Amino acid sequence: MSHQPFENWIFTNGLTLEQHKALYEHLQSCERCKNLQNRLHSMENQMRTAAIIAPPAGFNQRWRASFAERLERQQRQQVRRLFLLLAAAILISFAITAATLLVSSSVEALLFSSVKTVLSTLMSFNQFLLFLLTLVRMLPPAIPIALWILLTSGVALAAVVWLVSLWRISTQGVYIQ
Amino acid sequence: MSNTEAQWLQLALQGSEEAYAQLVEIYQTRVYNLCYRMLGSIEEAEDAAQETFWRAYQNLKRYDPSRSFTTWLLSIAAHYCIDQQRRRRLPLFDLDALPEEIIPDHSSNTEKTAAQHEMEHQLRQLLQTLGAQDRAAIIMRYWYDMSDEEIAQALTLSISAVKSRLFRARRQLAENWRGAQEQPLSVGGKQYESPAF
Question: Per DSSP, which regions of A31-172 are E strands?
Fold first, then answer.
């Protein structure tokens, strides 16, 4: 006896009415296909009535704990990535600048201009310090004590805020929404 | 989805961690059951379910509210479990360890719980015989009543691929199914060979 296409039809959804009739007639005379269909129905019934397994108690508490841990780990990774990115960007720009300078001028000229730049920077810094010193000598009589206190407090506060921000970023990372 | 669930989801989409924790509470059983049926071990199912919720949280912005949230979550869980199965290659089903919910309770009908235990054992062995994607499709069909379209969407397959996977898997399961102390049926020649040969 040929079991095809009936054997396939047993597992096919959406048979036509004629196919249903033909399958029904075949199942009346074929024990093997009947047995196969019974197995399918029994198996399907068992699966449909099988329990939905719930997680062990406290899943949500474990989720909250692991969530906080994962979030912290992710934030640390973000900070690390940010610093690495910055370092890479600095290195790349330094390399590009160095390469461009080396191509456009000789080593001697580069050294000469570097020394010149360093010296002029140092001189400018020195001049700035002298300017500040003159200001400090001249200003106190002109500025009331209250304003001095306000200014120094402001600078101290800004320094504290800056330090705290640095500490928070390095320990807790940056949360990006 | 109930109104409360929709509200939690809306808040979670706006970035509320507490609302997301509420969603975890609501969907934990559905996700855990899929992971457990896929992996067959309590510990692995727990890890997979936790990972699923974490991945879902990270990708919450990509969630399309016009789709079912359950289907979306189950899709993440199924993909993760399929990936785990591929990595370990040899499935390590913990056949003796059963979750608390189905461990025989000696205060109740012992025979009934023993039969339940046996049936659960058989179900897990049966599912183990399927490939990871076929197993996911079968679980979604029988435990979650998902349509071919929903399964296709969840497993990133075409509808015809889902139909053919379900056909093949159901046939394989029926042939291996031992109802009341029956021996596995051998149809035709080899187990997976077409009966036309």
Answer: none
User: What pLDDT sits at residue B188?
Assistant: 43
* Integer angstrom CA distances of residue B7 from A177, B54, B63, B85, B162: 20, 20, 15, 35, 33
Burial of B178 (0-12, 13-18, 19+ CB in 10 A): middle
In this structure, what token pair is assigned to residue A55?
A: 């997680």
Nearest CB partner across the interface for B179, out of A11, A42, A53? A42
- Placement of tokens 């320990």 in the chain: A171
Say whether residue A51 is in contact with chain B using an 8 A CB cutoff.
Answer: yes
d(CA B48, CA B63): 20
Kindly state the tokens that stand for B22.
């509420």
Structure tokens at B137: 């499709």
Tokens 């000696």, residue located: B106
A175 contact B CB<8A: no
Contacts of B99 in chain A (CB under 8 A): 53-54, 56
* B-chain residues near A52 (CB < 8 A): 29-30, 33, 143
Under a CB-based contact definition with an 8 Å cutoff, are residues A17 and B8 in contact?
no
| Chain centroid, CA A66 distance in Å | 17
> How far away is chain A from the Cα of B130, in angstroms, using its nearest Cα?
14
pLDDT digits (tens, 9 = 90+) for B86-145: 887 654 455 445 554 444 444 456 766 777 778 788 888 888 889 999 999 999 999 999
Closest-CA distance of chain B to residue A59, Å = 8
Contact A48 B142 (CB under 8 A): yes
Instruction: Count CB atoms within 10 A of the CB of residue B76.
Output: 20
Q: Give chain B's domains with CATH numbers.
A: 3-99+107-176 (1.10.1740.10)
The reply to whether residue B99 touches residue A56, judged by beta carbons under 8 angstroms, is: yes
Listed by number, the residues of chain A in 58-97 with a beta carbon closer than 8 Å to a beta carbon of chain B are 59-60, 62-64, 66-67, 70
CA dist B52 and B35 (Å) reads: 9
Asked if B39 contacts B132 with a C-beta cutoff of 8 angstroms, the reply is no
Give A14-61 pLDDT, tens digit per residue.
788 888 888 888 888 888 888 888 888 888 888 888 888 899 999 999
Q: How many Cβ atoms are within 10 Å of A155's Cβ, its own excluded?
A: 10
Q: Enter the ipTM.
A: 0.72
